[in-house]
Structure formats: structure tokens, C-alpha cells
Amino acid sequence: MTVILVVLCLVVVGLELYLGFGGRRTADAPDGTARLDERVDSLVAQINERMIPEVNRRLAGHREAIARLEAELAEVRAQLAGRLAQAAAESLGADPVDVVTGTVTGGAEVERAYRRFAESLGLRVELAVPGDGRTRFFLSGRSPRALERDFFELVRALRDGPDAGPGAGCEDARALLAALRTAEPGGARLGPLVLVRTPGALACGVLTLAELRQHGDDEPGPERLRGLPGGRYCEVRETSR
Predict the structure, then answer these.
(1) CB neighbours of 213 closer than 8 A, spacing ≥ 6?
(2) What does the alpha-carbon distance between residue 5 and residue 51 come to, in Å, rounded to a whole number?
(3) What would the pLDDT profile of 81-122 be if each residue is shown by its tens digit?
(4) How many C-beta atoms surround the C-beta of residue 21 within 10 A?
(5) Are 138 and 201 spatial neighbours (Cβ–Cβ below 8 Å)?
(6) How do residues 162-175 score in pLDDT, each as one tens digit?
(7) If 0-12 CB within 10 Å is exposed, 13-18 middle and 19+ buried, where does residue 13 land?
(8) For residue 164, what are the contacts with CB-CB under 8 A and spacing of at least 6?
(9) Dihedral angle, C-alpha 236, 181, 136, 124, nearest 10 °
(10) In this structure, what are the phi and psi dihedrals at residue 207, rounded to the nearest 5 degrees?
């Protein structure tokens, strides 16, 4: 950006010198005035065509980056204020807020579907931290044990297909799975629930709380999920979209 602005300044200065020199020669060479004006118009047109759009594009990019940064800072500030308010309430005897973690890999569409799924389960995104191709989430509102019970029902509903009774967040889970089908590779974890997309499989599993403590933010692959008991694992059929 700095280089482009410097070049523009030099061009403007050059034009002023050129026009000043041309103006002095106009009285001595009236026949060359038209040709001198044509060359200046051509040079200005080239600047407008080649350099101004690039400058505008870069300025727009900077504005978008600043807007994203402002939004992220506002989110962090709101999250910090919320945590302080909860700490103050706990000091007066309120129950602590349950917090679970999660991760998403696969792009913006998968992340949007993940947020909708989390909301349908009564969870609130407290903080999202992008990095290394995935986004790490901290969500409040439900305990891992309470979510585990819901996820058992979800696995059953996904295994049995559209004719099964509704499980907690089932429709939004199917929307998340549909988004994962287009991600290469892609995966998501929400507390003990793990959804994994690879070229050869689309698997859903519910980790035990002991496994969740042991593996932390890892996203286990389909092979590891297949070792779970039947009630904790299924491979989602195409008809479950």
C-alpha cells in the first residue's frame, strides 16, 4: 500500500512538471498543443484503469479486517464481562455455570451449521478461537453429562434414519452432517459428541467422559469411534440427510 501511494505521488508530481513545461512551450509551439493534451489524457486514463482499482481494493480489504477485529474485540469484551458477572453471582451463592469445549474443521459452512446445532441443544457460544485450520469453541449452558444423555438419543435417531423418533437437536445435527459431507476433510466435536468426515466414512460417536478427559481437544477418527459400544456409535446413512 505504501509503495502504491508513493508511486501515485510521484506520478502526480511528474504530471505537474510535465504540464508546466508543456504550458511554457504552448506559446512557442501551438501546433503541438493537441498532441501534448492527448498524451496527458492517455497517461491519466492508464493510472485510473490500472492503479486506482487496486488501491480501492486494498483499502476495502483493510476496512473489512478492521471491522472483523472490532467485532472480535467486542465479543471478547462481552465474554469477559459475562464471566465476571457469573463470578460475582457465584460469590453470593449461585451455582457455577457448566462449560463444555468443542472443535470444528471444514470451513465456514460447517461452522455455521455447528453453531445452529449447539444453539438447538441449549448451548451458548462464549468464545470461538480460530487457528491451524480449525476453530475451538467454549460453550456454556449444559454439562457434559446432561449432553451425553441427549447424544445417546441422537445416535439412535441418526442410526434409524428419518422414520425414527426425534432426538435432541436431530434436524440441526443432520444439517451439520450434510455440511460435513462437502468438507474434505472435516469434523466436529461438541462435548462428548464427535462427528468425523473422511473420504471413506461419515461417523458419529459419543465418547465416555473418561475418554473426553483423556483426549481433550483431539478429534478421533472413524477407526477409533468404531471401537465404541453400539449405543455410542453409528455410521450415518445417506437417507438421514
Answers:
(1) none
(2) 10
(3) 777 777 787 777 777 778 899 999 988 999 999 999 999 999
(4) 11
(5) no
(6) 655 555 568 888 89
(7) exposed
(8) 156, 157, 158
(9) -70
(10) -70, 150
